[in-house]
């Protein structure tokens, strides 16, 4: 990173943000770009959203922008916020304000408007977010945000305990910033997070889920999970048993928590696989036992992990369909799938024919292998082979679901199989035969198979009479 004094003279503003500052300046008002845009610009990170703070009351802001030909929307005027739009680009303009008392651990009961940008920045959560910028005036940094950017530290503005008791969501925001930015959390700030983590139970599931997902998708998620697990335990208590739980197996060199954190880090950053990685081994502490030689075993841990994941995600604002797919990955993450067409098609059938889910399973297996003992690294190549075999199966348009079978229920009934459960059983048996390559996926061969299946079923029934 460049030194701060080399950075602070020239931040490239998006054209619509520069025009907005000009509109306010020409109307006689003070205005600054504030918050995350300034932070990310100094770090060289992309950031599309620009927020502007001004000393102008929102009605004056509205008059100034409408006179300049901009459209305006009264999106948050009770808190001094007006949205302005120019050439399809929207900006939020907010009057300098201070927050009143917090009674729900999230929102101030009221806000009061203040005269200076310094007073406005004082209400912000972290010093790296309490920065303001104007092209003519440079950086305003009343709380040491520049130094904390260079030190790669997350530090609360003012008294940490007060900051987090006001708005408990800031606790998860700190964890999320640690994951996204790779910053450490200041010791006093972390102590304030720990002292107030019980307040997270008052935060809506939607807000908690958003912050957790952003954390999971962060570039530095391993360090963040390891460094903030005691705080995250308030919303993900399933992680507590994983911390420090030694696996005592030649296949693992990390405890369950660090293994988990490394698996999450080792998977591509998309929600499905990272949520599955987070939960895939949570059942290990409950399943653990040692054999007479002292080696650890975890038989059945995937089923326990599914139960724990189901409980955890039930508390969060994740869609039932998404949760179902995550649970499927957790259930099958340890299944052995050989790099053969038959084995891959069998796995696809277990996954309901969901090709994307199979790809995610391969991603999870790769991440899992990278987080085990060094001698397990070869399993990454196995996951790569599975992906390649899947490519071949798809290219050949091979059958692995009933939809791809060369016959359907009408054919089964025309072959003399009575309507009802027997039709489904017959088609499932036919699909098994096709997957095992005992019968080609051709109509004539499949009808012959159904005749034999029906005859066999009739013979079984006769024996049981």
Automatic annotation (TrEMBL):
Pfam families tied to this protein: HD (PF01966), PolyA_pol (PF01743), PolyA_pol_RNAbd (PF12627), tRNA_NucTran2_2 (PF13735)
Stretches assigned to the Poly A polymerase head domain: 32-155
Keywords associated with the record: Magnesium, Metal-binding, Nucleotide-binding, Nucleotidyltransferase, RNA-binding, Transferase, tRNA processing
CDD domains, per the entry: HDc, NT_ClassII-CCAase
GO biological process entries: tRNA processing
Keyword Glycosyltransferase among UniProt keywords: no
SUPFAM superfamilies: Nucleotidyltransferase, Poly A polymerase C-terminal region-like
InterPro entries: Bact_CCA-adding_enz_type3_sf (IPR050264), CCA-adding_enz_C (IPR032810), HD/PDEase_dom (IPR003607), HD_domain (IPR006674), NT_sf (IPR043519), PolA_pol_head_dom (IPR002646), PolyA_RNA-bd (IPR032828)
Residue ranges annotated for the CCA-adding enzyme C-terminal domain, each copy included: 400-450
Known cofactor(s): Mg(2+)
GO MF entries: metal ion binding; nucleotide binding; nucleotidyltransferase activity; tRNA binding
Protein family (similarity comment): Belongs to the tRNA nucleotidyltransferase/poly(A) polymerase family.
Protein name from the UniProt record: HD domain-containing protein
Species of provenance: Gordonibacter massiliensis (ex Traore et al. 2017)
């Amino acid at each position: 990173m460049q030194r701060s004094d080399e950075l602070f003279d020239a931040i490239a503003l998006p054209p619509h943000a520069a025009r907005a500052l000009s509109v306010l300046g020409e109307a006689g008002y003070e205005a600054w770009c504030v918050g995350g845009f300034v932070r990310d610009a100094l770090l060289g990170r992309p950031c599309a959203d620009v927020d502007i703070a001004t000393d102008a009351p929102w009605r004056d802001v509205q008059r100034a922008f409408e006179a300049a030909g901009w459209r305006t929307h009264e999106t948050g005027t009770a808190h001094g916020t007006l949205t302005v739009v120019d050439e399809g680009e929207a900006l939020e303009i907010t009057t300098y304000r201070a927050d009143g008392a917090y009674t729900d651990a999230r929102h101030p009961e009221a806000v009061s408007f203040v005269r200076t940008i310094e007073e406005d920045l004082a209400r912000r959560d972290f010093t790296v977010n309490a920065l303001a910028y104007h092209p003519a005036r440079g950086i305003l940094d009343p709380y040491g945000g520049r130094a904390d950017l260079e030190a790669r530290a997350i530090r609360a503005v003012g008294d940490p305990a007060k900051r987090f008791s006001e708005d408990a969501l800031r606790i998860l925001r700190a964890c999320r910033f640690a994951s996204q930015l790779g910053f450490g959390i200041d010791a006093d700030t972390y102590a304030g997070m720990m002292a107030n983590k019980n307040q997270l139970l008052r935060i809506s599931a939607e807000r908690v889920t958003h912050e957790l997902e952003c954390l999971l998708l962060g570039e530095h998620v391993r360090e963040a999970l390891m460094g903030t697990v005691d705080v995250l335990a308030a919303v993900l208590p399933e992680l507590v048993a994983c911390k420090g739980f030694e696996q005592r197996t030649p296949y693992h060199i990390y405890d369950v928590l660090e293994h988990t954190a490394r698996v999450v880090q080792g998977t591509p950053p998309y929600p499905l696989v990272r949520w599955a990685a987070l939960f895939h081994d949570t059942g290990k502490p409950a399943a653990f036992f040692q054999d007479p030689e002292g080696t650890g075993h975890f038989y059945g841990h995937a089923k326990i992990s599914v139960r724990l994941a189901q409980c955890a995600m039930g508390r969060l604002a994740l869609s039932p369909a998404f949760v179902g797919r995550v649970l499927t990955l957790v259930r099958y993450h340890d299944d052995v799938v050989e790099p053969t067409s038959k084995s891959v098609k069998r796995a696809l059938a277990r996954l309901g024919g969901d090709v994307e889910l199979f790809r995610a399973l391969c991603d999870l297996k790769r991440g899992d292998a990278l987080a085990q003992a060094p001698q397990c690294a070869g399993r990454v190549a196995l996951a790569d082979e599975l992906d390649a075999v899947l490519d071949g199966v798809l290219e050949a348009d091979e059958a692995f679901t009933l939809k791809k079978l060369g016959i359907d229920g009408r054919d089964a009934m025309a072959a003399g199989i009575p309507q009802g459960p027997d039709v489904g059983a017959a088609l499932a048996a036919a699909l098994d035969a096709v997957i095992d390559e005992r019968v080609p996926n051709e109509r004539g061969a499949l009808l012959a198979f159904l005749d034999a299946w029906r005859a066999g079923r009739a013979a079984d029934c006769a024996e049981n009479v």
